Fold this protein.
Amino acid sequence: MNFLKDVTITPKTILLMDDEVNVREIVKLCIKDLASWDVLTADSSFKGLEIAELNRPDAILLDISMRGSFMFLKQLRNNLETQSIPVVLLSAQARWLDSQFLQQYQVAGVILKPFNPVTLTVEIDRLLSNSIM
């Protein structure tokens, strides 16, 4: 695990959107403990949009299988206040996520479930660093 020592992760505020409470808690702990990032959580698309508008997080980590996630992405991108917030998707089944979908919704990248809790923040940071947004 020496690779984590060489990684510099800049402070961020992440909006974590997942409708499964257990997943939210695990991801939140990983993000807070390993990267010392601030974490806002939402268990629905409606709540996520509200939090994104009010807080303008540095990035959004979205479970794409959550009910209303497509509507969320569309509304996020159509709102001048939130359209530039990078989004990283969490997905248990990424085979249907093609490059056209990712470009259409300006998605920074995809992290597959199950994910490695130890490297999760490094992976999020890498995707956000490579993002063109």
